[in-house]
Specification:
The chain has about 160 residues and is α/β, with parallel strands linked by helices. It contains six helices and six strands. The longest helix has 18 residues.
Length: about 160
């Protein structure tokens, strides 16, 4: 069965116009959106703990303007993705010291390492194209952002 990023990052888990100013605030903002959309508010603290534990190992602010906060926790029963877009940028303690504008949050159960790694690999492929970042930043709403993910993913799939 093929895995598609546009299924992992559905519109209800995309937030254009993040309000957070720093890493901890953005984790809370994105986890709150996830919990509300998925009706899992009882899992909020467990999910935040998983993200923070992973982040303590090394910043997930991986390249200019992009972070991929991720965590593995049995609080979730499958792999989920959430996308946040910040116009003004977030003080993220990124490896390159620059503010982060795109955040791809990934949550996965402990047992689902293979799918989790495939999602990270596919995201890395999309990020290899600088136009992907530019097009995502230009989006005004969640459906538009999801359309960009689908467009660039289809380019990768066609090339495989």
């Amino acid at each position: 069965m093929r895995m598609f990023l546009y299924d992992v990052f559905p519109p209800e888990l995309v937030k254009v116009g993040l309000e957070a100013e720093n890493k901890d605030e953005v984790f809370e903002e994105m986890v709150d959106q996830f919990c509300q959309a998925e009706k899992k508010s009882d899992l909020r603290e467990e999910i935040l703990a998983a993200l923070r534990a992973r982040e303590m190992k090394m910043s997930t602010g991986i390249q200019k303007g992009i972070a991929i906060p991720h965590g593995r926790t049995n609080a979730v029963d499958r792999v989920y993705g959430a996308l946040g877009i910040s116009r003004r940028g977030i003080d993220y303690d990124a490896l390159d010291r620059n503010p982060v504008h795109l955040l791809f949050m990934i949550l996965a159960p402990e047992k689902d390492a293979e799918k989790y790694l495939r999602i990270l690999k596919r995201l890395a492929q999309l990020m290899d194209n600088p136009q992907f970042y530019t097009d995502l930043m230009a989006q005004k709403d969640a459906p538009g952002a999801c359309g960009v993910i689908k467009k660039y993913e289809n380019i990768i799939i066609a090339a495989d």
